[in-house]
C-alpha cells in the first residue's frame, strides 16, 4: 500500500536551498536553473576565506556542473539569469540569528550536511543537527510555513536485516539530550587530555621518538600528540555512542537525530524526507559521469585500482546501494513539488537502487575489476601499470585477522628499522615498509569505514519512490524521471563512472616524472649582507657523517695510535672496546653526555703536540674519510658567494685541516691549563637544539637570511638545525631522519662514493707512518676521569 | 749480450699472449697476422754498483770530479727524482740512496755542512715520510728528516725564484734553495726516454707558472713523440729553460738507467716471452689469476702496490747535464728499443696497474686514459705504431675509483669538467686556470698529500696527441659509464672491440700489439 502523490510545478515557486556548494546541492541548483525557468532560488552560503558568499556563488557558477547549461545559453546569458533568479544569503546555519531570510519561501530543501563518516562527535552534531534545528526554527518564523524537503540518508536505518520500509524511524532516542551531550563532549575530553598521567605518557613517548632531536621538539610533538588524542577520543565518543544506540557510525546517528528533530519541529506542517543511498556520478544530467570530487565509493575504487586494497571484509552478496546523482536530484525536486497535505504525515522516500535494480558487492567488484583489467592505472613510480588485485571475499574475520597481523608486523619492523644505521639498504627497506604500511592503513580505513555498507544485509525498499515516479506527468518522465530500474550497471560503472573518477589520477601520473635532478652546480648567488637589504645566504654543514665518514671515536683512535709506539696499541684499543657499550648507551640517551665523557680521554694532552700530530698524521687520516661530494658542495657554495659554516661536536684541533673550506667553524673546545688539556669542555657541547639556537644567533650577528640558507646533516639529532634553514638536505641520513626528510620533501643526498674505508684511512696514514709522535701528546693509555685513578 | 727486441707475427703456433689489464692480466689469442713488439731481453745489471757510482762521481763527463766542486761553507743541495720513478718502485736499496750516500760522504770529507735534500716532485703529491725513507735509505732519512730532507713546494711563494724568461718568453721559476745553492747535485733515474736531462731541474723543481709553458695542449700535440726529444716540442722548451738555469745555477747531474727486471721472482713470467714459460711460470700465472679473483679490489691493489722490482742498474753517468744525457739515452735505447716496419690499422696495448701518479694509490679513469693515450701510445720513435685515423684498443677495467686524498681535484675534474667536454683545448681554455689557482687544492697540495689542482689537466693533455691521431679509441673490459665519461668506447672482449673498430678500419685490419710492461720503445720506420 503506497501513498498517492500529486506532482505540481515548481515554476513559480521560491525555493530555499542549503548546501548549494555541496555535491547534491550543486546538482539541485543546476537543475533548478536549467530545468525550471520560472523558479526563484535563495541559497544560504557560509562565507569562507577572503571571498564573501557572493564570490563563492560566482565561482560556483564556473564549475563543471553548469558547463552544459552555460554552453547551451551562452556564458553571459547564464550568468545574468543566475544573478536575476538567485538570491545569496550569507550566513552559517548554526548562527542564523542576525541573518535576513526572505519571508515568502515555498519550498526549503536542506541538503547541507557533513559527509564525513568519522568526524569528532561535537562536529558531527554541530553540522548535522544544530544547523538543521537553527534553519527550521528560522523558517518557523515565516507566516506561511514552507514545504521542507529534508535530505537524509538511507543508512539511518542500517541495523538489522531484511527490507526496510520508507517511513518514520522506530528508535526512541531523545535527540535534544544527545545533541547537548555531543556538543559538550569536547570540553570533557579536553579536560581529560590535560591530566598529568595522560601528559606524562605523551611526553614519554615523544621523548623516546624524538628525544634525540632535542627537548623542544619532543615537547612540541607531545602537545601535537595531545591534540591528536583529543580528536581521536571525540571520534571514538561518536563511534561508540552511535554503536550503542544501534547506528553504524556517527554520521548516520546524527542524521537520524536530525530527522527526529525536523519531525518534531515541523509537526503538522508539510515535510518530506528524502533518503538517498550511496550517491555517485551522474547517469545523464548535466552530462554522463559528472561528479564533484571523490564521493563515497570512489576512494575505494581508486584504492583498488592503485593496488592498495588487496581484499575486502564484505560479503559478496551484500547489495551495494549505488544511485546516480541526477536520479537523486530528480527525486528530490519531484518530492518538493508534491508536498503532503496540511496536517498529514510527512513523506519518506528511499532513493536507491537496491530494491529494484540490485548491484551486489561482487557485481561491483567484477565491473571495477574488469574496468581496471582493461585500463589499468599507471604506477606512481612510472614503472608500468598496476595489476588490479583479485578479491576472494574470505569473510570479515579472516580479513581482519590478516590485517591485524600485518599491522603488528609492520609496527615491529618499523621499530627495529629505527634502530638500524642509515644505509642505502635500510632506506630501501624503510621505503618498502612505508608503502606496505600505507597499504595496510588504507585497508584498515576502508574496512572500518565502509564495513557497515559492505556487510549490511539490509535492502531499502523503494515503493514510495516508484509511486512518486509514476506520478510524474508523461511528458516529463523521460527527463525528470528517477526510476533506478533503468540503470545499466555495465555502462554506468565501466563506461561512465570509473573513467570519470580515475581521470584526474591518470592525468597526474601520466608518464614518469621527477627524474630531473637539480643541477648541483647551479646555486643561486647569495648576496653579501653589505651589498643589499636582504641578508646573506649561509650553507651550514654538520661534520661527522656529513662531510667526513668518521666520528669522534675514530678520530680519537687515529690520534691515540699515532702518538703511541706500536707495542702499546693493543691495551689502548682494548680499553676503548671495554668502554664502548657505555658510550653507546650514553649516545642513545644524550649526545652531549657522550661527548662530555669521551673527551675526558684527552685529559693531559699537550695542545701544541696534538696540533702537530694533526698536521702530520691525523689530518691525513681525516682527509681520507672526507666525502668528495661534500667538499664539492661546500666549494660550490663558496663560489656562489654563500657563507660556509661548520657546526660540529668534534674537537676544534681535529677539524683544523678543513678550516680553509669554512668562513665560520663552531666546534668543541676543551679547557686547557698551561698548554695541557684538562679533559673538560670549555662550553656546553653544541648538539641538537643547541645547534639551531647557535645558528640563529650567529645569523643575527652576521646578518644571514636563514630562510634562503642551506643546511646539510646526517642525523635525526640535527633535525632542529635543519628546520631553521630554508633549504634542508639530509645527507646519508639515519633511518629516522630519512623518514622525516621523506615526509617533509627535503632533499636527500648520498655522498661518499670515493671515500676511503676505515681501514684504508688507518692503514694509509697512521700505520704506514714511520714514527710515532712523542708520547706526550696524550697521556697513559685509556685513562678517563671515571676510572683513571683506580688503575 | 742479451737478445735484442723483435717483432713476432702471430700464427697458428703462437700461444695465447699475455695482456695486462689493471691489477690483473689475461692470456689473449690474437688474430693471425697480428704483429707483437717485444723489448730486448733484460740487460745484466752492474755487479759492483758502488764502485761504478764512485767512478762516475770521480770521473764525470764535462765537469770536474765531484770532490773538487765541494768546499767548506758552501750550500749544497741534493735533488732527487720523486716516487713517480721508477715503476714499480725499486727494491731496497734504491740506486738513489746509494748515490746520495756517496755524495754525502764526499761532502762530509770536504767539510760541507749546509746540505739540503729535496725531492723533485714538481706538482706531484708530497712523498710521505715512509716513501722518502724508501728512496734515501734509513741512514740519510734519520740524519736529515724532517728539517733537511723535504719535498719541493711549488706553491711556497717565498721559496721560489724567478730566474728569468727564455727567448720564447717562457718564465723560469724554480726552488729558491736550489737556485741559490753553490752546487745542485741531481740524482736521477731515467726509466723512459722522456725523462732525465733537461727535464730534471726545469720541471722537477719548478712551479705552475713555469710548467704551464710546456705542459699544454699545443706543445703536447707537437711532441711526436715526447719520448723522442729531438722531435718533441716539450723537450725543446725544457732545453731552453735548462740553458737559462745552467747559466745561473751549477748543476752536477748523476743519471742512472735500469734494466727490464720489472717484476719480482714470484711473477717472473711477466718478464718472459710466453712460449718460453716453463711449468713453474704457468703455475704461477694460474695461481696469480686465482689469487686475484679471490681478493677484494682494495686487497688486490694493496698487494700489487707492495711489489718492488729487482731492477739491475745498467748505467751510472755523472757530470754536466748536456754531456751526460746522450749517454743515458743510449742506455735506455739499448734496453727498450725495438725496430718495427710500418704502421698498422689497429694498435693494441695492455695497461697495467701502475702509472707514475698512482704509486701507493688508486689508478683512476683519468690516469688510465693518461697511461694509455699518453704514455703507452707515445712509446715510439719516428711515427706511431698505428696509422693516422687508425684505432687504439686498450685493456683496462677502468673502475670509477679515486683516491680521496691523493687525487681530490681529479674527482672534480671527472665530475664537473669531463661531464661538460672532453676536448683538451676547450678544457684548457675554460677550466685550467680555475683549478690551478684554487686555494683549496693548493692547500691540499701543500699540507696534505694531494696532487696539484692542475694535475688532472696535464694528464688529459698527455693524451692530446693520441686523441688527435686516432680515429677511434676502445677500452676492452672497461666500466661503461666511466668510458663514456672519458669519451671513449668500451667493449667486453677483443672480438667486440674489433667489431666496433671495423667501422673505422674495415673487417681485416692490420694489428700491432706493443707488449708491455716491461717497457718497449718502438722505432717505427
UniProtKB/TrEMBL annotation, chain B:
Residues 36-225 form the LarA-like N-terminal domain. Pfam families: Lar_N. It comes from the Bacteria. InterPro entries: LarA-like, LarA-like_C, LarA-like_N. Gene3D superfamilies: 3.40.50.11440, 3.90.226.30. PANTHER family: LAR_N DOMAIN-CONTAINING PROTEIN, LARA-LIKE N-TERMINAL DOMAIN-CONTAINING PROTEIN. This is Lactate racemase domain-containing protein. The lineage of its organism: Bacteria, Bacillati, Actinomycetota, Actinomycetes, Kitasatosporales.
Amino acid at each position: 500500500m503506497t501513498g498517492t502523490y500529486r506532482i505540481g510545478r515548481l515554476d513559480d515557486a521560491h525555493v530555499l536551498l542549503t548546501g548549494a556548494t555541496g555535491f547534491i546541492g550543486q546538482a539541485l541548483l543546476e537543475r533548478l536553473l536549467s530545468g525550471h525557468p520560472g523558479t526563484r532560488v535563495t541559497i544560504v552560503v557560509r562565507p569562507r576565506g577572503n571571498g564573501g558568499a557572493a564570490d563563492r556563488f560566482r565561482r560556483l557558477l564556473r564549475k563543471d556542473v553548469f558547463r552544459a547549461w552555460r554552453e547551451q545559453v551562452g556564458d553571459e546569458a547564464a550568468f545574468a539569469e543566475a544573478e536575476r533568479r538567485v538570491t545569496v544569503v550569507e550566513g552559517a546555519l548554526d548562527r542564523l540569528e542576525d541573518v535576513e531570510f526572505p519571508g515568502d519561501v515555498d519550498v526549503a530543501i536542506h541538503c547541507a550536511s557533513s559527509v564525513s563518516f568519522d568526524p569528532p562527535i561535537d562536529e558531527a552534531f554541530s553540522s548535522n543537527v544544530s544547523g538543521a534545528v537553527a534553519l527550521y526554527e528560522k523558517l518557523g518564523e515565516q507566516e506561511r510555513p514552507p514545504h521542507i524537503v529534508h535530505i537524509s540518508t538511507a543508512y539511518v536505518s542500517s541495523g538489522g536485516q531484511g527490507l526496510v520500509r520508507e517511513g518514520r524511524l522506530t528508535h526512541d532516542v531523545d535527540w535534544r539530550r544527545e545533541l547537548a551531550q555531543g556538543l559538550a563532549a569536547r570540553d570533557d575530553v579536553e579536560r581529560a587530555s590535560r591530566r598529568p598521567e595522560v601528559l606524562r605518557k605523551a611526553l614519554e613517548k615523544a621523548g623516546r621518538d624524538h628525544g634525540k632531536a632535542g627537548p623542544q621538539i619532543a615537547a612540541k610533538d607531545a602537545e601535537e600528540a595531545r591534540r591528536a588524542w583529543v580528536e581521536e577520543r571525540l571520534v571514538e565518543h561518536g563511534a561508540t555512542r552511535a554503536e550503542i544506540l544501534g547506528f553504524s557510525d556517527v554520521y548516520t546517528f546524527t542524521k537520524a537525530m536530525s530527522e527526529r528533530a525536523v519531525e518534531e519541529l515541523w509537526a503538522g506542517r508539510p515535510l518530506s524526507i528524502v533518503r538517498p543511498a550511496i550517491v555517485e556520478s551522474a547517469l545523464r544530467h548535466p552530462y554522463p559521469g559528472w561528479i564533484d570530487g571523490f564521493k563515497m565509493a570512489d576512494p575505494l575504487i581508486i584504492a583498488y585500482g592503485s593496488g592498495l586494497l588487496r581484499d575486502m571484509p564484505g560479503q559478496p552478496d551484500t547489495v551495494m546501494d549505488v544511485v546516480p546523482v541526477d536520479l537523486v536530484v530528480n527525486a528530490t525536486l519531484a518530492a518538493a513539488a508534491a508536498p503532503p497535505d496540511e496536517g498529514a504525515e510527512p513523506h519518506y522516500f528511499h532513493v536507491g537502487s537496491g530494491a529494484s535494480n540490485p548491484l551486489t558487492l561482487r557485481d561491483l567488484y567484477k565491473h571495477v575489476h574488469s574496468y581496471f583489467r582493461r585500463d589499468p592505472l599507471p604506477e606512481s613510480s612510472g614503472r608500468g601499470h598496476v595489476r588490479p588485485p583479485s578479491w576472494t571475499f574470505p569473510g570479515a574475520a579472516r580479513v581482519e585477522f590478516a590485517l591485524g597481523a600485518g599491522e603488528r608486523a609492520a609496527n615491529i619492523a618499523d621499530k627495529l628499522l629505527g634502530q638500524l644505521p642509515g644505509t642505502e639498504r635500510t632506506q630501501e627497506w624503510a621505503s618498502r615498509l612505508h608503502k606496505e604500511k600505507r597499504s595496510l592503513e588504507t585497508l584498515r580505513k576502508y574496512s572500518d569505514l565502509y564495513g557497515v555498507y559492505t556487510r549490511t544485509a539490509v535492502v531499502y525498499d523503494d515503493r514510495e519512490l516508484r509511486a512518486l515516479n509514476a506520478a510524474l506527468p508523461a511528458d516529463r518522465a523521460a527527463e525528470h524521471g528517477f526510476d533506478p530500474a533503468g540503470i545499466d550497471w555495465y555502462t554506468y560503472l565501466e563506461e561512465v563512472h570509473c573513467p570519470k573518477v580515475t581521470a584526474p589520477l591518470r592525468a597526474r601520473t601520466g608518464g614518469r616524472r621527477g627524474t630531473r635532478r637539480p643541477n648541483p652546480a647551479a646555486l643561486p648567488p647569495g648576496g653579501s649582507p653589505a651589498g643589499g637589504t636582504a641578508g646573506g645566504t649561509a650553507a651550514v654543514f654538520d661534520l661527522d657523517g656529513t662531510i667526513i665518514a668518521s666520528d669522534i671515536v675514530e678520530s680519537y683512535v687515529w690520534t691515540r695510535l699515532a702518538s703511541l709506539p706500536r707495542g702499546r696499541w693493543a691495551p689502548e684499543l682494548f680499553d676503548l672496546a671495554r668502554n664502548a657499550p657505555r658510550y653507546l648507551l650514553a649516545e642513545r640517551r644524550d649526545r652531549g653526555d657522550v661527548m662530555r665523557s669521551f673527551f675526558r680521554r684527552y685529559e693531559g694532552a699537550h695542545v701544541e703536540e696534538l696540533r702537530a700530530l694533526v698536521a702530520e698524521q691525523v689530518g691525513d687520516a681525516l682527509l681520507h674519510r672526507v666525502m668528495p661530494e661534500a667538499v664539492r658542495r661546500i666549494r660550490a657554495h663558496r663560489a656562489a658567494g654563500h657563507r660556509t659554516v661548520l657546526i660540529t661536536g668534534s674537537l676544534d684541533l681535529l677539524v683544523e685541516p678543513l678550516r680553509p673550506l669554512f668562513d665560520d667553524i663552531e666546534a668543541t673546545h676543551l679547557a686547557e691549563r698551561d698548554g695541557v688539556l684538562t679533559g673538560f669542555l670549555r662550553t656546553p657541547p653544541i648538539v641538537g637544539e643547541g645547534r639551531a639556537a647557535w645558528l640563529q644567533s650567529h645569523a643575527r650577528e652576521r646578518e644571514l637570511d636563514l630562510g634562503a640558507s642551506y643546511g646539510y646533516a646526517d642525523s635525526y639529532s640535527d633535525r632542529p638545525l635543519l628546520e631553521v634553514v630554508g633549504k634542508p638536505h639530509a645527507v646519508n641520513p639515519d633511518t629516522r631522519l630519512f623518514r622525516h626528510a621523506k615526509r617533509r620533501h627535503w632533499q636527500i643526498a648520498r655522498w661518499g662514493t670515493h671515500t676511503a674505508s676505515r681501514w684504508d684511512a688507518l692503514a694509509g696514514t697512521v700505520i704506514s707512518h714511520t714514527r710515532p709522535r712523542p708520547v706526550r701528546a696524550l697521556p697513559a693509555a685509556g685513562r678517563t676521569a671515571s676510572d683513571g685513578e683506580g688503575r | 749480450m742479451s737478445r735484442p727486441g723483435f717483432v713476432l707475427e702471430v700464427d697458428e703456433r703462437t700461444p695465447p699472449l699475455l695482456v695486462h689489464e689493471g691489477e690483473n692480466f689475461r692470456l689473449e689469442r690474437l688474430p693471425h697476422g697480428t704483429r707483437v713488439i717485444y723489448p730486448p731481453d733484460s740487460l745484466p745489471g752492474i755487479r759492483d754498483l758502488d764502485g761504478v757510482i764512485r767512478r762516475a762521481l770521480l770521473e764525470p763527463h764535462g765537469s770536474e770530479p765531484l770532490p773538487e766542486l765541494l768546499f767548506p761553507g758552501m750550500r749544497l743541495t741534493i735533488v732527487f727524482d720523486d716516487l713517480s720513478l721508477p715503476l714499480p718502485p725499486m727494491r731496497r736499496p734504491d740506486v738513489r740512496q746509494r748515490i746520495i750516500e756517496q755524495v754525502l760522504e764526499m761532502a762530509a770529507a770536504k767539510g760541507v755542512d749546509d746540505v739540503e735534500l729535496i725531492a723533485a716532485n714538481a706538482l706531484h703529491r708530497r712523498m710521505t715520510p715512509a716513501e722518502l725513507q724508501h728512496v734515501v735509505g734509513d741512514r740519510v732519512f734519520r740524519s736529515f728528516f724532517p728539517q733537511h730532507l723535504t719535498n719541493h713546494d711549488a706553491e711556497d711563494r717565498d721559496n721560489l725564484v724567478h730566474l728569468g724568461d727564455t727567448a720564447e718568453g717562457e718564465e723560469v721559476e724554480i726552488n729558491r734553495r736550489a737556485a741559490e745553492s753553490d752546487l745542485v747535485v741531481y740524482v736521477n733515474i731515467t726509466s723512459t726516454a722522456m725523462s732525465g736531462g733537461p727535464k730534471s731541474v726545469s720541471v722537477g723543481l719548478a712551479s705552475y707558472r713555469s710548467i704551464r709553458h710546456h705542459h699544454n695542449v699545443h706543445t703536447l700535440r707537437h711532441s711526436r713523440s715526447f719520448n723522442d726529444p729531438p722531435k718533441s716540442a716539450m723537450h725543446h722548451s725544457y732545453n731552453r729553460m735548462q740553458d737559462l738555469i745552467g747559466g745561473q745555477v751549477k748543476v752536477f747531474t748523476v743519471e742512472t738507467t735500469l734494466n727490464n727486471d720489472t717484476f719480482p721472482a714470484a711473477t717472473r713470467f711477466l718478464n718472459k716471452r710466453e712460449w718460453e714459460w716453463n711449468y713453474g711460470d704457468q703455475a704461477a700465472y694460474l695461481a696469480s689469476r686465482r689469487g686475484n679473483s679471490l681478493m677484494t679490489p682494495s686487497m688486490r691493489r694493496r698487494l700489487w702496490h707492495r711489489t718492488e722490482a729487482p731492477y739491475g742498474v745498467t748505467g751510472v753517468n755523472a757530470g754536466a747535464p748536456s754531456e751526460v744525457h746522450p749517454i743515458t739515452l743510449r742506455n735506455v735505447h739499448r734496453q727498450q728499443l725495438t725496430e718495427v716496419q710500418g704502421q698498422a690499422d689497429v694498435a693494441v696495448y695492455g695497461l697495467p696497474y701502475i702509472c707514475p701518479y698512482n704509486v701507493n694509490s688508486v689508478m683512476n679513469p683519468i690516469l688510465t686514459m693518461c697511461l694509455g693515450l699518453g704514455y703507452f701510445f707515445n712509446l715510439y720513435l719516428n711515427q706511431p705504431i698505428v696509422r693516422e685515423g687508425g684505432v687504439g684498443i686498450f685493456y683496462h677495467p677502468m673502475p670509477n675509483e679515486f683516491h680521496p686524498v691523493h687525487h681530490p681535484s681529479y674527482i672534480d675534474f671527472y665530475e664537473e669538467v669531463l661531464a661538460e667536454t672532453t676536448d683538451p683545448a676547450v678544457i684548457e681554455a675554460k677550466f685550467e686556470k680555475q683549478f690551478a689557482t684554487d686555494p683549496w687544492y693548493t692547500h691540499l697540495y701543500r699540507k696534505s698529500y694531494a696532487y696539484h689542482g692542475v694535475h688532472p689537466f696535464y694528464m688529459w693533455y698527455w693524451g692530446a696527441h693520441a686523441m688527435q691521431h686516432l680515429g677511434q679509441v676502445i677500452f676492452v673490459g672497461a666500466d661503461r659509464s666511466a668510458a663514456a665519461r672519458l669519451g671513449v668506447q668500451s667493449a667486453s672482449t677483443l672480438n667486440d672491440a674489433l667489431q666496433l673498430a671495423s667501422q673505422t678500419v674495415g673487417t681485416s685490419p692490420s694489428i700491432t700489439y706493443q707488449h708491455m710492461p716491461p717497457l718497449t720503445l718502438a722505432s717505427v720506420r
